Amino acid sequence: MQPKQPNYLVHHTTHSTPLGELTLVSRNGALVTVGLPGQHSTPPHPATTSKQDTDDPLNDVARQLDEYFNGQRTTFNVNTDLSATTEFRRTVLEHLLTIPYGHTQTYAQVAQAIGRPRAVRAVGSACATNPIPIIIPCHRVLRSDGTLGGYAGGLEMKRALLELEQ
């Protein structure tokens, strides 16, 4: 007897932005991945159905990204799925959504805000493995000395995103 396969629908597409091609992946209507240029994006699970069509929920994500890059959007209204992350990482990523457009926090401030003041490096790790960058704004988190720190898309991309928001 064959094991039961997961039953969910995956959509995926690439979307051109001023920073390069983003890979967008949704599962059952919720965004699960924004792959940055140069990143290896995980292909959809082989047990899923994958398609692109006019009902694709990623069309709205792409539109909101266009508005963001055109300076017409400061927050995203996107259904996300962080179920593949740990509880700690999910807590960090959910906090990042509260950092306003045009503002930054340090890794230490994020650790303090989530009630884990000694977990500064773990906060950095959670930011580095953010599966939905830009939408979940890990680019708004800096080192305590005010320098950029790291970014999965590279420091030039992080700098460009922060400059866009000024």
UniProtKB/TrEMBL annotation:
GO molecular function, one term: methylated-DNA-[protein]-cysteine S-methyltransferase activity
Domain of life: Bacteria
More about this protein: This enzyme catalyzes only one turnover and therefore is not strictly catalytic. According to one definition, an enzyme is a biocatalyst that acts repeatedly and over many reaction cycles.
UniProt EC number: 2.1.1.63
GO annotation, biological process: DNA alkylation repair; methylation
One GO term describing the cellular component: cytoplasm
Protein name: Methylated-DNA--protein-cysteine methyltransferase
Residue ranges, annotated region (Disordered): 35-57
Family under the similarity heading: Belongs to the MGMT family.
Function: Involved in the cellular defense against the biological effects of O6-methylguanine (O6-MeG) and O4-methylthymine (O4-MeT) in DNA. Repairs the methylated nucleobase in DNA by stoichiometrically transferring the methyl group to a cysteine residue in the enzyme. This is a suicide reaction: the enzyme is irreversibly inactivated.
Database matches in Gene3D superfamilies: Methylated DNA-protein cysteine methyltransferase domain, Winged helix-like DNA-binding domain superfamily/Winged helix DNA-binding domain
Active site: 138
Domain Methylated-DNA-[protein]-cysteine S-methyltransferase DNA binding intervals: 87-166
Residue stretches of biased makeup (Polar residues): 39-51
InterPro entries according to UniProt: MethylDNA_cys_MeTrfase_AS, MethylDNA_cys_MeTrfase_DNA-bd, MethylDNA_cys_MeTrfase_DNAb, MethylG_MeTrfase_N, MGMT, MGMT_N_sf, WH-like_DNA-bd_sf
HAMAP family reported in the protein's UniProt record: OGT
Residues annotated as domain Methylguanine DNA methyltransferase ribonuclease-like: 11-82
Catalyses which reaction(s): a 4-O-methyl-thymidine in DNA + L-cysteinyl-[protein] = a thymidine in DNA + S-methyl-L-cysteinyl-[protein]; a 6-O-methyl-2'-deoxyguanosine in DNA + L-cysteinyl-[protein] = S-methyl-L-cysteinyl-[protein] + a 2'-deoxyguanosine in DNA
Intracellular or extracellular location(s): Cytoplasm
Keywords, comma-separated and alphabetical: Cytoplasm, DNA damage, DNA repair, Methyltransferase, Transferase
